[in-house]
Amino acid sequence: MKSSRRLKLTRMAPVVIFCAILCPSLLAQGHSQRPAMALAGSVEASPFVAIRAPEIKYEHKFLDRKNQLLFAAVTALDFTDFGITRSNLQSGGRELNPLTRPFTGSTGTLALNFAGETAGVIGLSYFFHKTGHHKLERMTSVVSLGTSATSVSYSLIHH
User: Fold this and answer.
1) Residue % of the chain over a pLDDT of 70
2) How many whole angstroms separate alpha carbon 110 and alpha carbon 80?
C-alpha cells in the first residue's frame, strides 16, 4: 500500500513543480529574488494595483429639450384647467378638488392657485434634478400632466 502511494507522489512531483514555475501568482507573496541594485531606478508594477474604469455619469441640463416640452405641456394643461374651472364656477358649478376649493372665491385667487401648482411642479422637478433623481424629475411633470388631463377631460364631459 505504501509503495503505491509513494509511486503516485513521485509521478505528481514533476507536475506540481512545473505548475509552480509557470504560475506567477504563487510567487506573488514572496520577496523579489533580484538584487537591490537591479531595482534602483526601475519601476515595477505591483500586482495589487487595481485600475478602476472611469465612471461615466450622464448629467443633463435642467432645461433640456425634454423638460422644456414637459413644462410647456404642464403649463398649457394647467392654463386650460384654470379656464374650464373658472367657466364651470361662473355657470354655477363647484370645485371638486378639496385643495383648490378654498381658492375659488375670486378669479385672481384661482389663477394664483393654478400658477402656484405649475411653479410647484417645476420647482419639485428642479429639486429632483439637483439631488440626482432624474427619473423622478421627469415623472413629476408626467404625473402633473396626467392629473391635469384627467381634470380637463372630466370638466369638459360634465360641463
Assistant:
1) 65
2) 13
